[in-house]
């Protein structure tokens, strides 16, 4: 599933307006061949894989967790999971695979913290510059570095914000990618759309979009692609 995470990111970004972890550098080579659309389906009654129209977000998350091994699901995109109050992220950060920090207007110097195996895996700016730590010049208690345990990230963010220099990077905080191996986040019920990729075979995958109204499932969009 790890090799499908970039595919999930690109698909989610195309419909949700999020930022991906790595910027794509321009090259002079041929454009990559896009995946081939095999089939698409829309369900507004019934269901798929035990996920049923009318179920709550909590019920559906439990279903996705139960089948994650069988269907190769590791990450889930959660649309509009955006915060302006840092305290709202307490206890949430370890449940997600990334946190994006930026000003309300959006800047090239926004910070993207990416997690794997319960540690900080990488740090990027929005314009694709890779960092070993952020910010530079603070003490260890107010600096996030690659390799830090994810459980320590929240308190370090509090310390960074309290110093004031980077307070504007906490105007808009986004947690778009949910680690489905981790517990349900009740705030996910406020999102209008979730997304995930399910592996069908080595080259074929299903991009599933779950549409919610008032925390209940109203539609399932299922699109099968071939990445040959």
Question: What is the topology?
Answer:
Elements: H1 5-16, E1 36-43, E2 47-48, E3 51-52, H2 57-71, E4 75-78, E5 82-83, E6 98-102, E7 111-116, E8 119-125, E9 130-131, E10 133-134, E11 144-145, H3 153-163, E12 172-174, E13 177-179, E14 193-199, E15 204-213, E16 216-226
Antiparallel strand pairs: 1-16, 2-3, 4-13, 4-14, 5-12, 6-7, 6-12, 7-8, 8-9, 10-11, 14-15, 15-16
Outline of this structure?
This protein is an alpha+beta fold and 228 residues long. The protein contains 3 helices and 16 strands. A 6-stranded antiparallel β-sheet has the order 1-16-15-14-4-13, sandwiched between helices. The chain has a 6-stranded antiparallel β-sheet with strand order 5-12-6-7-8-9, with no helix packed on it.
Rounded radius of gyration (Å): 18 Å
Low-pLDDT residue intervals, each spanning 5 or more residues: 1-7, 12-27
User: Could you say which overall geometry the principal axes of the C-alpha atoms support?
Assistant: globular
Helices and strands: which structural class?
A: alpha+beta
Binned strand content: 25-35%
User: Distance N terminus to C terminus?
Assistant: 16 Å
Number of strand segments:
16
Number of domains: 2
The averaged pLDDT comes out at 88
The run of helices and strands is HEEEHEEEEEEEEHEEEEE
* Proportion in helices: 10-25%
Protein name: Lipoprotein
């Amino acid at each position: 599933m790890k090799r499908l995470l970039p595919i999930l990111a690109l698909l989610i970004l195309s419909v949700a307006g999020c930022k991906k972890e790595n910027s794509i550098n321009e090259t002079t080579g041929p454009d990559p061949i896009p995946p081939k659309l095999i089939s698409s389906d829309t369900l507004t009654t019934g269901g798929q894989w035990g996920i049923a129209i009318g179920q709550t977000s909590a019920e559906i998350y439990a279903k996705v967790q139960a089948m994650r091994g069988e269907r190769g699901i590791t990450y889930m995109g959660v649309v509009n999971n955006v915060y302006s109050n840092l305290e709202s992220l307490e206890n949430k950060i370890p449940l997600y695979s990334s946190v994006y920090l930026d000003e309300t207007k959006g800047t090239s110097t926004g910070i993207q913290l990416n997690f794997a195996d319960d540690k900080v895996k990488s740090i990027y700016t929005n314009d694709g510059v890779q960092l070993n730590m952020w910010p530079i010049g603070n003490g260890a208690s107010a600096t996030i570095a690659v390799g830090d345990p994810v459980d320590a990230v929240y308190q370090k963010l509090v310390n960074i914000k309290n110093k004031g220099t980077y307070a504007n990077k906490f105007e808009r905080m986004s947690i778009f990618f949910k680690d489905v191996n981790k517990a349900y986040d009740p705030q996910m019920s406020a999102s209008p759309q979730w997304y995930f990729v399910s592996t069908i075979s080595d080259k074929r995958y299903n991009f599933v979009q779950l549409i919610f109204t008032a925390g209940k499932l109203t539609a399932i969009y299922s699109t099968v692609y071939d990445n040959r």
